[in-house]
Amino acid sequence: MLNIVLFGPPGAGKGTQSEKLINKYKLTHISTGDLFRKHLGEGTELGKLAQKYMDDGYLVPDEVVIGMVDDKIKETTDANGFIFDGFPRTVNQAEALDKLMNGKGTPISGMIALEVPFDELKKRLLERGKISGRADDQSEEKINNRIKVYQSETIPVSEFYKKQGKFTAVNGVGSIDDIFGKICGVIDGLQVQNNS
Ligand code: AMP
């Protein structure tokens, strides 16, 4: 099984690349942001709870996110593997994910981190805001807050995977296809390691 954590700040291109990767490698996509937006759209209690945090760019509490991911993994019985997108975002979440996946006997294969300069991220998110309708893409203040939260709470997650020798950085600036090619190169290397 191939289990990839696709990591990077908001606006790095994780969603775009995940769509291409799930088609190529037949993986199940778990995007916690998408799952929360689905709950929000359906007006569930979980959605209402998450909205309070999402609108201003704060993280939803760990136990809520971890419970949701746990349910999603358990209900997926036919996966070749998973792409985790936007999760884990705290070291607590990374530890919980390790426990879940190690418990299934299918550990995380690797983290791929998309690196994009902060000025470029801001530009991309403001552009996306014009078409996405996402409340959290609508103002520079909210975007700055998400980047600040990323720096303080999420960057330590990359250290967690570095310590396990599972971290690879990929330059997230360039054409979608070029970046996709580089990510595939990393994944193909992981598959060779898995099979040897
Ligand atoms: P995203 O679509 O990944 O940018 O996520 C949108 C928002 O959903 C984030 O700004 C958070 O409020 C919330 N969210 C998504 N994933 C997580 C996570 N792993 N932990 C906490 N909050 C999350």
Could you explain how this protein is built, in words?
By secondary structure, the protein is of the alpha/beta class. It has a single domain (2-188), classed as Rossmann fold (3-Layer(aba) Sandwich). 61% of the residues lie in helices and 13% in strands. It has eight helices and five strands. It has helices spanning 14-25, 32-42, 45-54, 62-75, 91-103, 118-132, 140-163, 176-195, and strands at 2-7, 28-31, 81-85, 110-115, 167-171. A five-stranded parallel sheet has the order 2-3-1-4-5, sandwiched between helices. The two termini are 14 Å apart. The structure holds adenosine monophosphate. Residues 10, 32-33, 36, 53-54, 57-60, 65, 86-87, 89, 93, 136, 146 line the site of adenosine monophosphate.
Shape: globular
CATH class: Alpha Beta
The CATH architecture term is 3-Layer(aba) Sandwich
Determine the N-to-C terminus distance: 14 Å
CATH superfamily: P-loop containing nucleotide triphosphate hydrolases
Gyration radius over CA: 16 Å
Question: Which structural class is indicated by helix and strand composition?
Answer: alpha/beta
